[in-house]
Amino acid sequence: NGMMNxxxxxxxxxxxxxxxxxxxxxVFVVDKGGNGANSLAAGKKEYVDIFLxxxxxxxxxxxxxxxxxxTVVPGNFERSLPLDVQNANVIEALRRGAExxxxxxxxxVLEPLSDNADLYLRDSAQTYMVCKGxxxxxxxxxxxxxxxxxxxxxxxxxxxxxxxxxxYFQIGD
Length: 173
What we know:
By secondary structure, the chain is α/β, with parallel strands linked by helices.
């Protein structure tokens, strides 16, 4: 949604206006180079470094715009690696991101998407497993009703199964 790329003056203006209106910012996206780019599943240091830099910059943006939640999309599958190795790579990178957010009371919310079959996060069970692995109040699920209906259906059942890790709902049509 581009919040991190807006100039600081605009971010401050947004935050001040929202404060005057007694509003809180919804999610903004942690800039790591795009949904599929710099996949955390690959376990590559340069990709993790880009992600962690995005997390550090997101803390400052969150302060300016009075935000608590930031969307993270870990990137694409790394088809040359076994899935469990990819899971471990994602969990480790997100733990490091959570360490950045925790002291500030900020929460990255992981969003499984239906836009592209190559994206690593696809369903609520996988996202739940990743959040449990990260084991941090700063890593939770963004449950997007639209994407989850497309990817897995059975919304109420899957929400009930993953409820304790869901921090944020999105609804679109």
